[in-house]
Amino acid sequence: MQHLDPKAAHAYLQAHPRAMLIDCRTEIEHMYVGHPVGAEHVAWQEAPDWDIDPEFADKVKWLVGGDLQRPLLLICRSGHRSLYAGEALEKAGFVCVINVLEGFEGPLDDDFHRGTQGGWRHHGLPWQQS
């Protein structure tokens, strides 16, 4: 698995039109916190039980029409869930999986807030809220 910071991930998406950005956060995070423009949403896990979706890789396969060669970039809140989701996709046969470091909101700062030290949104990359 490759790892790119948000700016490099955005540049990769611009240079590789076939690449797909997948937001693997919960539906609530995707809708209310915001998400990168153009990101497809496939949750790795959902509330209230937080169990990993056993059909995650199958949902992504369906989304890409079974093209396991298609480059996939995965983003979550801080870059941790996307790492595990990426490992599951590699295990399912995807050959080009890229984890977006820092995620959408970045790491916690000293006041336990996100978005002040990194992340897609912090770097001023295109995003929207539903």
What does this structure look like?
This protein has a single domain (2-128), classed as Rhodanese-like domain (Oxidized Rhodanese, domain 1, 3-Layer(aba) Sandwich), CATH 3.40.250. 28% of the residues lie in helices and 16% in strands. It contains four helices and seven strands; from the N terminus they run E-H-E-H-E-E-H-E-H-E-E. A five-stranded parallel β-sheet has the order 1-6-5-2-4. Strands 3-7 form a two-stranded antiparallel ribbon. 38% of the residues are buried.
CATH superfamily: Rhodanese-like domain
Would you identify the regions where 5 or more consecutive residues have pLDDT less than 50? none
Oligomer: single chain
Strand runs, count: 7
CATH class: Alpha Beta
Percent helix among the residues?
A: 25-40%
Major sheet: arrangement of strands: 1-6-5-2-4
Number of alpha- plus pi-helical segments: 4
The string of secondary-structure elements, in order, is EHEHEEHEHEE
- Shape, principal axes of CA atoms: globular
